[in-house]
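This part of the workshop introduces the protein records we will be handling. An example says more than a description, so a record of this kind follows.
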Amino acid sequence: MTNSVASPRRVSGRAARSATVLVAAILGAAPLVGTVSPAVAADPPEQVDNSKVYKTEAAIVEAMEKWAPVKSSESVMGYPMGIDQDAKGNIKSVALVDVQAQYDVATALKDAKQAAKDYADGMVIDKDGNKVPRPDGTKPPLFNADAARQIADSSITDPETTQSTSDNNIAQAMSETNSAKSYCNGSYHYEGAPQNTAKANPCIFVGKLDPTSGSKYPKVDGGSGIAGGGKKTYTVGGQVTEENSSTSGWSVGGKFTPKLTSTPADGGTGGEGAGELSFTYSYSSTSLNRQMTSQEDKTEVEFPAGAKGSLQGRRDGAYYIGYLFVDYQGTEKAPGTPEKEHLKAIPARVYVQSAETSTPVTYFKYQETAPQ
């Protein structure tokens, strides 16, 4: 399909499902440009403007705030897949002192307990900021709800803290030591509790919007520009790897690998965009927008003379600074006594997809005016 287009373009993917374990499904993903896509079908017609050309970063951000509004604070159940990573997939560690400067751990724990309770009770936040039952009337699977309540009902008010994100070992009962990720998404369980076949242990991330420049709607490569005006046909697609489960396990998020190719209308040199890095994202604990069909679009764009035109991509979310709270049973245990509960706070920076969107990326037709 070829469209002459300028409005935001949405890249979408379909979530994979499994009854008992976390699974991964690779799906095609592509923008939907110039037509009312499934992602925006409920939006007013005026939000889909085929004549729109964006000329400033402020205009793009304003549009993104309509398509994918982000909150000042967020929560993610389980281990956050969107934890900040480098190009090789290594976690970028943040220091406790830096997180505490923006979000003290005592307040964060109160927020975490409330968010865990809301999740267990099947409550979400609507577009007006009100706490309401899930629109579809569902509640989380029993084991997930129980794991969330383990945090919500904890009597601990002064959690243990680690000094950085990389300091994340969890010393469990029976002398097991695991990383936070292995524990949160593992099958470990408390003494006397039923076997954890759901692989959902008591873990939650809570964070505040990172004020650092570039943290909100991070840029995605849009390929080379075209100077002096003219037409260019873009093919935008990608792959979405979703990891979630409909009945058990934490719905942790996804990984998006975008791909963009372009062809000048005159048949000149085209090619792919710069080597684009994949990025991972977490789902908000209040998000229900996780399933979309996918397609690939070819979009013809035209820029007037005297302008430099390009395709600009923005992620549909933001980075948050906060803590991963992990509730677990420790290794110390006297004969005939219950295992001791621990609650550990691990500082982290996490990318969270907007709860109001079901697509990882939105693209814009961007125009720069040549200097006089």
Summary: Residues 84 and 289 are 22 Å apart (CA to CA). The first strand starts at residue 2 and ends at 4. The mean pLDDT is 73.
